[in-house]
Amino acid sequence: MNFWKFFFEKEEVEGVAVVRILIGVLLITSALLLLPGLLDYFGPQGMLKFKTVIATLGNSRLNLFSWLGDSSTILWIIFTTHLLASISMTLGFSTRLSTLIAYITLTSLHHRNLLILNSGDTALRVVLFLLIFSRAGDAYSLDRVLKLRSGKVIGEPLPQAPWALRLIQLQTTFIYLATSIHKFNGQAWANGNAIYYTSRLWDFERFPVPYLLDHLASIHLLTWISLALEFALGTLIWISPLRLPLILAGICFHLGIEYSMNIPIFEFTMIALLIGMIPSQVIKNQISAIWPRK
Fold this sequence. Notes:
With 294 residues, the chain is an all-alpha fold. The chain has 16 helices and no strands.
């Protein structure tokens, strides 16, 4: 693989723009899910005192609470700013600035209480950071609409170096590869019994899955299929003829987990990242076919 071509040969920006929209929708959804328990999760009288956070993690991490104070008023200001920045980023208004603000506020909330997070939250934070450096506002955005109306740009969005999107794609495959390697080292995955145990974590149960999770043969099969699929999503997905079939299989895989287990945001975050693996030209062609430009 040619390193320079992989990261810097210009390509369509529609792919990273779609990632921006999907991640933005997930940020908004995540914020709204936190809203009913906001003071309990992050407030000064909540489940985790700020002094405990500082004593455990130190005071060197990016955290607006360290600079502005740990009060309910500051919490509401940070949260509201985060929600507004996420909406602005999703719509593509002042995209880079909105993404930066969303990242700072999200990171501050995460560093205020790490105990309520799952891997999906961490993935959102990492991808949001990388989006700051992308050209995600060049397509499907209010920024572009305003530039078109003012005459600053004409025609379709120009291709740009995709290095930020490539880093997001690499991060996506690293997640799957690290997960599969970790599971390979676990006896329950190697012997095919892992899904028996994960399917009986009643705290995470959403909807029942009859038959498949009640018979050893199907449990073995599902365990090994999921292990093989995650390894393929971390490696074989870079082979062009296999990419779209693997993305489709990965989306079905995550929808199946979403149906059976309640892990907020995580599965849809991974689906968004898998969509980001689709070549930008393919995304542009499909969207143009559905929604032709005038």
